[in-house]
Amino acid sequence: MRIKWILLLASTLLLSGLPVGTEQRAQAAACGSASNEVTVLSDLPSKVSSAARGSTIIVCNNTYSNAGTITLSNTTAATSASDTITIRAETQGGVELTGKLTFKLSGSSYLKLDGFYFNKVLHEGTDSLRQVVVFSNCDYCTLSNNYFYSSGNKDTTVGSDPALTNGASTHIVRFESGTEFSVIENNTFENSISQSVGIVNGTSPNLNTNNTVRWNYFVNIPSTQTVWGSATTNGMEPIQIGQSGSTSNFNIAEFNLMQNVIGDASEMISVKSSQNTVRFNTFRDSDSRVTIRLGTGSLIEGNFFFNSNGVRAYGDNHIIKNNYIQNPQFSGINLADGNATSHPSSTGTVVMNNTIVDQSGPYNSLYIGNNASNIKVYNNLVRKSTTGEAYTQSATGTSSIDFQKNLSDVTGSATAKSANITSGITTAATNLVASGELFRTPSSGIVLSHGGVELTGVIEKTGTYSTDMDGQSRGTTIDIGADEYSSGSIVRKPLTVYDVGPTGNWWLNKRSDGRYAIDGGKDSYLEAEWFMNKSGAFDLVNDSSRSGGAYMSIPETAGDHVSSIWTEYGLDVTNGGSFDVWMLASAADNGSDSFQLSVDNGTAVDAVITYNSGFVWRKAYTGLSLSTGQHSLKVIDREDGAMVDKIMLTKNTSHAVPAGNGDTALYPKHPQIVAPGF
């Protein structure tokens, strides 16, 4: 312990009126002693039913197994958000729920479930309820800040196709029986074995309408065949809105991040009802796509797709606009070949101001399918170099397909359009400008003749055509594609793990089996606070100014060279070799400017950081050997007072000092449970 800290502690105690050496700490009563606290989940229904409006009920930290169905209801009149009854964990993530459990929020309004860790909550087909959370006739209810890991319905024994009947196509969270204006927000769904969120249509007058799914993280969802076997080719999409097309539901999926999602390789968001909105979401490294399977009049707007397969639509009178689709394998936008039964052909749909760049597979980038009619294709931009056409109109049964002011930037083996498109496509270089992970409109703009076609009135849900993918205002002469060149402030951007999921990122430390996919061909960033394990006084310090909202610190009182103080990160390395280790770090003084590093519990080496008043990047170690395969990397105490915010691993020995907080950190991938073991 350094003298300056002893003096500071002494002065603090003297100012408080307490003699030095007196403990200044109030002893908190154990959770469960207050009337609004529960230690047994079966006590929750009575607590909720008798709770005063605007109150909070606390579930004490513990692990609760096989609690069965917990029905939560309060029929006291409620009229505003201030009347919300909140049921929350004592501390976020401190309540772990496992086994068979269903929270059913029923026959109420303004209830909120917050801060729980659902760890392998798994049902079977014989259970009366096969969902983890059910909203049933629950208006203005909220599910927030929860982590659902490897949960769903594991039944493999009921029905002619058990996975479809009970497993892959049932829901973890389900809206039913007349739920309106309710919200699912800031949750993480990882390794789901069923559909993560399902909003069923309901039956008039008990429709499920005007609900919102937002700011959630859906990650590491494997293929249905991986989990359920080769015969299962449907289900496990993160969000399903409706099951038949005739009902208008007006539900919204917005500001969600989906990453490494496969499912049935067809649907990430599945829309099967009418008048819904899918907007401002980000899709990364996912084999599936946004699909309008049934219904009419839905809006797909302002979504970002990276290495993901864009939009597929059936049905009538949809609007698909301002979407940015980069490096899809299949068609970026596909008004798919229809049939007379479950996949209706497109009629009256508008596809405008979308950007599709660098499609990787030998497919057509923007496709208008069989029997489509009265389709408007305006102001789109396609850049393509692989085999296939930038714009394609099927030769089978299509009619009144109106192409206007579209741009085709084709090179290599790509062609601009199919032969039956006679106008409305201009072939020219776009000169898009790389900006971070996006390709943007250059300062000169991208306009054709007098700019793009502007649609107003009935064709726009908002009645105006005013903004681009970033939320920036479009000029009077609008640019082609999703991006309008503008010096105005960016309102929306592609989402990362930092933007979504439970607040405070507590869920990132709930599991000790995660591994980071380290590719020696790329720079790999790790958030120090997203560790696999830790030991001793290596503290997580929440700080909104730091990358990821927190950093790791060894207190000045911990002592130097304490080998039992460490954080550990699981690595799964490809293209292994010799890596330099950079750290975004800080030190309390020049006697606090180092850690040690150890690979696979081998000999520890010194990693030197910089004594500075703030966090700065420094190459802390050169030549750390990481062969291809799985490894453990430990950061160990060498000098107390050292702090680390972020770690970067690179094989580039001449790498420049990273700017700012560096690139987006990797997210650790956890093992997937697989039927029939579960």
Automatic annotation (TrEMBL):
SMART domains: PbH1. It comes from Paenibacillus qinlingensis. Gene3D superfamilies: Galactose-binding domain-like (2.60.120.260), Single-stranded right-handed beta-helix, Pectin lyase-like (2.160.20.10). The keyword Signal applies. This is Right handed beta helix domain-containing protein. InterPro entries: Galactose-bd-like_sf (IPR008979), PbH1 (IPR006626), Pectin_lyas_fold (IPR012334), Pectin_lyase_fold/virulence (IPR011050), PL-6 (IPR039513). Residues 1-22 form the signal peptide. Keywords: Signal.
